[in-house]
Amino acid sequence: GNSRYHIMREVERSLRRLDTDHIDIYLMHLRDRTTPLVEAIGAMGDLVRQGKIRYWGVSNFAAWELCECLWTADRLTASKPICIQNPYSLLNRELENEVLPLCREAGVAIEAFSPLAIGLLTGRYSGVRRPSPDSFWGGRGKDDFDRVFSQQTRDIIATVVDIADLTGTTPTRVAINWVLSRPELTVAVIGPSRLEHLEDNVA
To answer: How far is 135 from 133, CA to CA, in rounded Å?
Structure first.
């Protein structure tokens, strides 16, 4: 949870595991509704003052929750969250509705995770009816795959594959570059499982 006790304890554990005296950015990964936000933000502010973390941010927060964090930090005269880490890709553009405008106005950086939409934008599933059993989607079951793999999803993937073919690159690079082309985006958080995936992502 995000109670002061847990935040302080886990920072100390992380510092020991990492064998360092500070953490560059520490994220509240999910909103803990059993702990008042003022308690969590107060703990983050104290950790910044102690030099144990340099900055803090949030992950998987809605725009209104990030806004509440900014207001609460201001009220406490504590350090404010500098970033938000949420999913963003050609197949998930929900951030554009409220989070992007808020971050632009407040000067909060955006870390986009899942820029490949859990592998759907790699082109691996282009034109397939059933994913191979050794893939993430193959292990999820046919109903899950059919629900996600709508006609709109198929059309977007086909367009990404076409652009990759026209430019002599890979669908992965097209999808990640699209995310990074947004001026509000600071970083695309990748999750390759093989060396060749890493090389393709980095390129």
So the answer is: 6
